[in-house]
Amino acid sequence: MISVQGLKKQYKNAVVLDVEELQIPKGECFGLVGNNGAGKTTLFRIMLNLVRPTGGGVLLDGMDVSKTENWKSRVGAFLDEHMLLSYLTPDEYFETLRKIYKLSVEDLKLHLEKFQELFNDEIQGKKKYIRDLSKGNLKKVGIAAAMLGNPEVVMLDEPFENLDPSSQVRLKKLILQEKSDRQVTFLISSHDLNHVTEICDRIVLLEKGKVIKDLQEKEHMVETLNSYFGT
Ligand SMILES: Nc1ncnc2c1ncn2[C@@H]1O[C@H](COP(=O)(O)OP(=O)(O)OP(=O)(O)O)[C@@H](O)[C@H]1O
């Protein structure tokens, strides 16, 4: 369970995040939407202790993410390409992570097998460095890396962006599979309203850093979001 309490982030005089309370239960697929600059990435970055909040904090299973490191083995995330080691090939990168997470060669192989359809023969066994991959393929490497080591919580910032239509469908299938097989808690930010409403149990809408809607009923999600975004 993730618990956000009195979270505030301010840059000079601008308050970019102001979330009074948010509880995300285990196994929930939590979607985060909002216009550019609404504060989605800032919320994820604070949850990963990459940005220090001005006030309040985030607890993961009771652990304050800014005060202990123990939550890190339970969380996987891909926010942007800076999280990757661009001087490695995807194979070298996965092998490096395998060693860090102390997984067996077989564990890594089984994990990557789940991604074969999504990888579409473009990622493994190639001599291409991560820095030379297309944006979509780079995203696929980041997502596969975020899910490595069986994390209980997976945070993905704009996972569908830059993926071709078949890859978007394959990614949705993968997320739903992981969720039903292992009760993974997914936190997904997206501008793609169709995809998030399809796979998420709940959608939180941010506007200028504040939660203005917390939608938990599937039937009303699409309608409410379409009317908000004018889509
Ligand atoms: N280091 C920083 N210094 C000043 N302002 C910042 C900084 N980082 C983020 N911001 C501001 O915080 C606000 C929220 O940004 P954030 O990236 O969280 O939005 P977002 O919802 O993820 O947007 P997008 O949909 O465009 O990715 C923006 O106004 C942004 O300019």
From TrEMBL:
Pfam families: ABC_tran
Domain of life of the organism encoding this protein: Bacteria
InterPro entries documented for this protein: AAA+_ATPase, ABC_transporter-like_ATP-bd, ABC_transporter-like_CS, ABC_Transporter_VariousFunc, P-loop_NTPase
ABC transporter domain segment(s): 2-230
Entries under SMART domains matching the protein: AAA
UniProt GO molecular function: ATP binding; ATP hydrolysis activity
Cross-referenced SUPFAM superfamilies: P-loop containing nucleoside triphosphate hydrolases
Nucleotide-binding among keywords: yes
Keywords: ATP-binding, Nucleotide-binding, Transport
Transport listed as a keyword: yes
PANTHER family: ABC TRANSPORTER ATP-BINDING PROTEIN ALBC-RELATED
Protein name (Swiss-Prot/TrEMBL): ATP-binding protein
